[in-house]
Amino acid sequence: MFDIGVNLTSTQFATDRDKVVKRAREAGVTGMLLTGTNVLESQQAQRLAER
User: What is the Cα–Cα distance from 26 to 22, expressed in whole angstroms?
Assistant: First the structure.
């Protein structure tokens, strides 16, 4: 399964971002398209994707 609208740069995930990703993987998500609504969020999404 591939999630095409992941907003992991949102501050609502600041404290549990890694847990959110772990739960998604455990649920069968094999890929995620991280979104950014501006340059800063896009750069943050890129750093997350590199991890």
Answer: 6
Phi–psi pair at 43, nearest 5 degrees:
-65, -40
| Total tally of structural domains belonging to the chain | 1
Q: What pairs with residue 6 in β-bridges?
A: 34
d(CA 47, CA 28): 23
| Strand runs labelled E in 1-50 | 2-6, 31-34
pTM of the model: 0.77
> What range does the domain containing 19 cover?
2-50
Q: Over pLDDT 70: what percentage of the chain?
A: 100
